[in-house]
Amino acid sequence: MCIDLTGIDRPLETCEALVAEQKAKIRQLEEHLQQQREFCQKLEAQLKAVENADSSVWGTESDITEDDRIRLIASLEKSQEMYRTLIKHYPNGSVFLFDRDLRYTLVDGQGLAAVGWSKEQLEGKTLWEVSPPEDLPLFETKYRAALAGKENTFEYKYGGRVYSTTIAPVKNDREEIFAGMVVTQDITEKKQAEIALQEIKNQLKIKYQKRTEDLKTANSQLREEIIYRWRAEEALRESQEQLELFFSQSLDGFFFMMLDESVQWDNTVDKEKVLDYVFANGRVTKANDALIAQYGDTREEFIGRTLYSLFSHNLTGGREIIRQFFDAGRIHIENENRKFDGVPVWVEGDYICIYDSHGRIVGYFGVQRDIGDRKKAEASLRDSEERFRATVEQAAVGITHPDTTGRYLRVNQKFCDIVGYTASELLSRTWMDVTYPEDIDADLEQNKQLFAGQIDSFKMEKRLLHKDGTVVWVNITVSLIKEPLSGAVYNLVVTEDISDRKKTEAALKESEERFRQLAENIESVFWMVNVQRQEIIYISPGYEKIWGRSCADLYANGRFFADSLHPEDRKRVIANLTRQIESEDEIEYRIVRPDGKIRWIRDRAFPIRNQSGKVYRIVGIAVDITARKHAEKTIRESEERFRQLAENIQDSVWLMSAEFTDLLYLSPAYEQIWGRSREELYADPLKMMEWVHPEDKHLLEEAMGRVLQGESTNTEYRIFLPDGTIRWVCDRAFPIYDESGKIYRIAGICEDISDRKLTEARIQAALREKEVLIKEIHHRVKNNMQVISSLLQLQAQYIEDEPTLALFEESQTRIHSMALIHEQLYQSEHLDRIALPPYVENLVANLYQSFGCGNTAIQFNLNLDPIYLNIETAIPCGLIINEVVSNSLKYAFTQSAKGEINIEFNELTSQELQLIIQDNGSGFPPGFDVENAETLGLRLVRMLSSQLDASIAIDSQCGTCYTLIFKELNYRRRI
Q: For strand 858-864 and strand 899-907, is the pairing parallel, antiparallel, or unpaired?
């Protein structure tokens, strides 16, 4: 049989045939080379003979005849032609003859055409004309050495071929060198064979090194056989034994599957029929124990099994494998086979076709191993990798793999979330593209050191640019990854989003700054003490203001401010501050300032724990409560005075909760007023409603509601004593607010007003009687004035003198104006005050009627504020209005029957009143002296104005206008 050696990676069983074939090729090349050398030697001897013959011929030229000379020349030419023919047909090489000038005199051989030269191109030419410039020094040296008698043999590469070149001197029979000869032989095939052999040796060496020690021994023996040919048979026999041992003892399964007859496998045959034949007639002829164990069979049953038996579980798949195998001549597969008991078994195998000398397949050789454990490991590895991938994808931190250029190779979803890009977008970017520009240089420097091997890893905080343009703070941990198989180098970058932490740090920094400003500006003292050494770590500037001592001195001393403690408090305070504080603590003590002043301090201390939960710092806030202590003292004194007052006054003082459910305090006077014990009301505060008169309960309920709304109330109501007696009480209640402005207490004072109520009833009865009497007096005064007015009117009927009659009428109107006041007083609800508007209206109407102005030619315009005047002020005002309006009616409109009289009575301020009386009549006559006029009316006006203490202005530019400004006169009580 014959094995195909076209492949490189072949099993060891084909090595013997390969070595034998290469040995045969080497022997053939060596025999051919020996033949060429013998031919060269023979040619050299013949050339010497020719030279000698030529010399002897010329030496005896004078002794021979012309015919002999012609024959000799012909003989020499024939001999020369014969050698030229011999050189011309020199196989696989060329022969060159050169003289002492290094000029070629004879060139020929079959090798010239192979390199593109002809003898015509070379003969007659010198070495310098035909030799490549780069090789000229070599050949010139060798040629001259030959002419000096030295022979050189070397290898020369030209035109992609390798030539064995011999340069030797050519001598005559006198051993004189007269020329040089160059003989070249193409040994390219030999060199290629040697190189191929060397490559095969190297490949065998690599494969043998991967095998067991027994295989190394066999490989060594094979190398010895190649080197030492005379030990070939012994080495092959030993190798066969080692291979047989390896075959039988190997953990891998080896077998030969041979066909009964060889088959042709090409496009000229029906491959399906060939496969049918192969599956039916391909039998296992040899197998080692490892292979038989893979199928769980015995040697007796396994030898002779066909492919149908081996692929019975999957004939279709088996046929496809064999088809691919025969197409390629060899195959490497991993396949799930079946043991003969049906148990699955995974195998990995290499299979090589065995061919005969005609290229027909006679069988194949296989090496396969059980990879069930490896498959399980691979499955576990895949599961592990899948879990790892899922872990990476679901990790709470960003994980990326950038290469040495910074381009992302892999990114997980968390990193995509951090920077806002998709994975596909990031894979086309570098980490520099998403890094804040100011942070790139620092990151590049660290990466440079990492790739240079100067550091194993590094950490840094930097900023990334989110896709939306925002800045994201991250903490990255970078390490270098070098894959051992692929040699790939890249970074593993774990990215943690610390934006929230940065915000927290910024907020903390801002908070610390606020705290610092607060600590340094508040009046309280903030302090911190080291528990172990009882040293002051920090104290705020407020210490200097409260203690009156320097912070620097306190830091220098290093101890707490014990020296400033009041002697009476020092021992207690030091014991409290030096003990182990486990929770918030508070203490009050006194300090003595350098100026001798004593101040009260309230100190609150808090423990600070380390990570192990142990207290290692104590912080505190010391507040100056001197003012509060003084206030508390004042309050205590005030409370004592209040208690003494409340318990000694006749009124009952009480304090209740805002819900009226708890009675907080009730003074002893309650028992004197209500006739009941305080304990009874303390037990049930709302029970007091049972003792309130039914008709007055609503008053008390309404008052409670108003107090809860923030009002102070004053409620008078009746109560029942236990003996049924009724008493009047006045309860004054008011709300008390807390610091937030919320009502949290209701306080009040309850006073027994029974005697006052009895006195008020008597006074009211007396007042009613006096009101009736006063009204009767006003009525009688008014009636008397009406009688006087009637008498004047009766008397006027007998007076014929007009001036006298006018005096009677004026007196009558004056009396009527005063009577109107008394009339309104007894008709009014207020006996001491009179409503001015209705009084003026009635007065004007009476005057209008008295002066016979029944028509409407004169119009009165009244602008009167709702003013009430006492009787002392009203009577003068009424008389002034009477006098002025009477004058206007009598004298202002003598030339015209029409006119206006305006009366305004306004309240300028809360105390000043203004009375304006104006007409649009003719005014005073020219030259009339108002100030010195002696008429009764004007004298009365000035006198009444003086009585009112009023300022008066009289203007007669457009009619006549009187303006009086005055204050209400004080009322003199008459009852």
A: parallel
Average pLDDT over every residue of 768-782? 57
- CA distance to 90, 252, 332, 336, 586, per residue, from 367 (Å): 51, 7, 10, 15, 89
Tokens of 505: 């740090």
Q: How far is CA 891 from CA 481, 491, 748, 923, 930, in A?
A: 129, 123, 69, 8, 15
Tokens encoding 772: 């009736």
Burial status of residue 402 (CB atoms within 10 A of its CB: 0-12, 13-18, 19 or more): buried
Does residue 763 surpass a pLDDT of 90? Answer: no
Residues 419, 467 contacting (CB under 8 angstroms): yes
Which residues have CB under 8 Å from 605's CB, separation 6+? Answer: 577, 581, 584, 585, 586, 587, 618, 619, 620
Q: What is the pLDDT of residue 771?
A: 60
Say how far apart CA 688 and CA 670 lie, in whole Å. 12
Radius of gyration of the chain (CA): 72
pLDDT at 294 over 50: yes
- Please tell me the distance from the alpha carbon of residue 819 to that of residue 830, in angstroms, as a whole number: 17
Residue 47 vs residues 34, 82, 373, 577, 870: alpha-carbon distances, Å: 20, 11, 78, 128, 182
Q: What is the pLDDT of residue 779?
A: 56
Whether pLDDT at 3 is above 50: no
**With 50 as the cut, is the pLDDT of residue 4 above it?**
no
Q: What are phi and psi of 184, to 5 degrees?
A: -110, 145
This prediction's pTM = 0.30
| H-run or E-run covering 960 | strand 960-967
Q: What pairs with residue 182 in β-bridges?
A: 96, 167
Query: In sequence order, which residues have a C-beta less than 8 Å from that of residue 821 and are 6 or more positions away?
Result: 834, 839, 871, 874, 875, 878
Strand partners, 153: 166
Task: Classify 65 as helix, strand or coil.
Answer: coil
Q: Rounded to whole angstroms, how far apart are CA atoms 641 and 524?
A: 33
Distance CA 395, CA 387 (A): 11
Tally of CB atoms within 10 A around 715 = 20
| Sequence-distant (≥ 6) Cβ neighbours of residue 253 within 8 angstroms | 287, 288, 290, 291, 292, 293, 294, 347, 366, 367, 368, 369, 370
End-to-end Cα, the chain, rounded Å = 165
Quick one: pLDDT band at residue 740, thresholds 50, 70, 90? confident
Q: Sheet of 489-497: strands edge to edge?
A: 408-411, 398-402, 489-497, 471-482, 457-465
Mean pLDDT of all residues belonging to the chain = 79
E strands present in 498-534: 525-530
Band of pLDDT at residue 463, cut at 50, 70 and 90? very high
Stated as kind and residue range, the H or E segment containing 184 is strand 177-186
Angle subtended at Cα 880 by Cα 876 and Cα 885, rounded to the nearest 5 degrees: 150
Exposed e or buried b per residue across 887-904, where buried means at least 16 C-beta atoms within 10 angstroms of its C-beta:
bbbebbbeeeeebbbbbe
Q: Quick one: pLDDT band at residue 353, thresholds 50, 70, 90?
A: very high
pLDDT of 407 above 90? yes
C-alpha distances out from residue 310 to 225, 279, 297, 322, 327, Å: 39, 9, 12, 12, 20
**Which pLDDT score is estimated for 245?**
67
| Distance, CA of 850 to CA of 702 (rounded, Å) | 58
SS3 content of the chain, % helix, strand, coil (to 5): 50, 25, 25
DSSP secondary structure letters along 772-814: HHHHHHHHHHHHHHHHHHHHHHHHHTT---HHHHHHHHHHHHH
Q: Using 50, 70 and 90 to split pLDDT, how confident is the model at 444?
A: very high
| Residue 666 CA, distance from chain mean position | 64
Q: Is the dihedral of CA 680, 683, 686, 687 positive or negative?
A: negative
pLDDT at 430 over 90: yes
